[in-house]
């Protein structure tokens, strides 16, 4: 039974990532019939939306596609920046969707930006505190101090879960309320719209998997502390 649960958990976490990778690679072939590369489409969409001050950049090696709110930049990986493929234009439209969110002051995006800045550091700090609680309790001889630290550490460890849960509507909004309607305006042929939806859906599911992984990690710590 335990082995089955482990296999199921791995499938839930890694299955969407494999699906997304397959969808992106499957539609990443050069297409001469497309009007431009990912970067060219992103610049055109930013200009059409009158997002002055927003730029399109190529990602540094080792980093992927993302929107940088600090520099107001749509950042595309090498595979999508200069490539004329269905994957490149769909990814570019998605990242422009985040730029639009930023421009209009989309609240979930703003909240995620604030939390992401310290979530990773807070999670590492909470792990250290959890491991140090027995030693601190022994030294101070105060069970109350240990309980307070435990409560604080658990609360801090919940922050990444909150970040992931907020990320879900942010990503779905950028994909299906921003990018897809734009692509449906004539930027893609009708035959390309179903695979474009699959690309967006596959990528969105990776964020669902990340949220589940964060929940499982939190549950693992809770189970460890109950022993």
Keywords:
mainly alpha, 8 helices, three-stranded mixed β-sheet, 227 residues, elongated, single chain
In words, what does this structure look like?
This protein is mostly helical and 227 residues long. The protein contains eight helices and three strands. Strands 1-3-2 form a three-stranded mixed sheet. Helix 1 (2-26) runs antiparallel to helix 8, helix 5 (107-140) packs antiparallel against helix 7 (159-187) and helix 7 runs antiparallel to helix 8.
Brief rundown of the structure:
Helix content is 75%, strand content 5%. The protein has 227 residues and is mainly alpha-helical.
**End-to-end Cα distance:** 21 Å
**Count of β-strands:** 3
Low-confidence stretches: none
One letter per element, helices H and strands E, the order comes to HHEEEHHHHHH
* Inertia-based shape: elongated
- Our Rg estimate from Cα atoms comes to 21 Å
- Largest sheet, order of strands side by side? 1-3-2
Largest sheet: 3 strands, mixed
Topology readout:
Blueprint: H1 2-26, H2 38-48, E1 55-58, E2 66-68, E3 73-76, H3 78-81, H4 86-104, H5 107-140, H6 143-157, H7 159-187, H8 193-226
Parallel strand pairs: 1-3
Antiparallel strand pairs: 2-3
């Amino acid at each position: 039974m335990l082995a089955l649960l482990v296999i199921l958990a791995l499938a839930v976490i890694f299955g969407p990532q494999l699906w997304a990778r397959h969808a992106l690679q499957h539609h990443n072939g050069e297409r001469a019939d497309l009007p431009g590369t990912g970067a060219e489409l992103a610049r055109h969409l930013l200009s059409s939306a009158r997002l002055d001050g927003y730029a399109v950049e190529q990602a540094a090696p080792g980093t992927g596609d993302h929107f940088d709110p600090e520099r107001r930049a749509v950042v595309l990986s090498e595979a999508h920046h200069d490539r004329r493929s269905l994957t490149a234009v769909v990814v570019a439209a998605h990242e422009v969707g985040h730029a639009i969110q930023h421009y209009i002051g989309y609240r979930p995006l703003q909240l995620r930006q604030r939390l992401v800045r310290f979530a990773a550091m807070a999670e590492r700090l909470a792990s250290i505190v959890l491991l140090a609680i027995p030693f601190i309790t022994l030294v101070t001889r105060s069970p109350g101090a240990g309980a307070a630290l435990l409560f604080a550490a658990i609360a801090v460890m919940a922050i990444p879960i909150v970040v992931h849960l907020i990320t879900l509507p942010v990503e779905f909004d950028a994909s299906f309320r921003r990018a897809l309607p734009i692509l449906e305006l004539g930027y893609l042929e009708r035959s390309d719209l179903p695979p474009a939806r699959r690309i967006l859906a596959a990528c969105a599911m990776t964020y669902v998997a990340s949220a589940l992984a964060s929940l499982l990690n939190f549950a693992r710590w809770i189970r460890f502390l109950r022993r």
